[in-house]
Amino acid sequence: MRAVARIVAERAPHGGTRLSVLHGESPLLLRRTGPPTRAGVTVHLVGGAAGPLRGDDLRVEIQVGPDAVLTVRSVAAQLALPGRPGLPPSRLEIRATVAAGATLSWLPEPLIAAAGCDHHTVTHVEAADGATLLWREDLVCGRHAEEPGDVRTTTTIRYAGRTLYRHDLAVGPATPGWDGAAVLGRGRAIGTLVAAPALPNEPPSTPVAAMMPPPTPVAAVMPLSGPGVLATAVGADIREVGAALDPLCVR
């Protein structure tokens, strides 16, 4: 299955944000939720079919114009499934651009790597100098009491023309050591949050130590080499990850 979803958010003529493009194709359906407010517009991604499955080629394109404010969420977790044997891995490509003065918050539900899946998510975000970005990615390794399939995520976030964050993660039986101490250890869920130029509920001058979640060996907040912050958490399940990262997403 091939599908493209596209969102273009612009500043409305009389203030606020309007959606000049809101286009989805199953399984990537888009719905604006709630009325536009001065806090911006919210769009939810709705799964119109099962998957992603082997052979699927999916793409999400997001463009946020100057002074527009957009939040993208999803109504449910994304479940990567095996599909027919012999087909290539499923692929989801996400590309976002955020103009100067614009705000984009990407806060979807987790990706779940079901047993037997083979999936690759590739993300590229380009944020201009003066943009505000909040980018969250959560991954759950397998359903309840299930070993995961193979998932690879490749994320690149650029800010003001420079690479701010570049991260590759691979889990599953095709990746030796993914459940060892160097990657997830005993954890079965991982979440990352990238904020630029700062976390939404902390002024830029706040020391990084003051932003730390409650003391835990599996969560940390770190400054990036540039105007940004990275928060990451590993837990036995997504609830533990959410307990560390959710408070950092509140504006």
UniProtKB/TrEMBL annotation:
Belongs to the UreD family. It comes from the Bacteria. Coiled coil: none annotated. This is Urease accessory protein UreD. Keywords: Chaperone, Cytoplasm, Nickel insertion. Required for maturation of urease via the functional incorporation of the urease nickel metallocenter. InterPro entries: UreD (IPR002669). It comes from Paractinoplanes rishiriensis. Pfam families: UreD. The keyword Glycoprotein does not apply. GO terms for cellular component: cytoplasm. The lineage of its organism: Bacteria, Bacillati, Actinomycetota, Actinomycetes, Micromonosporales. GO terms for molecular function: nickel cation binding.
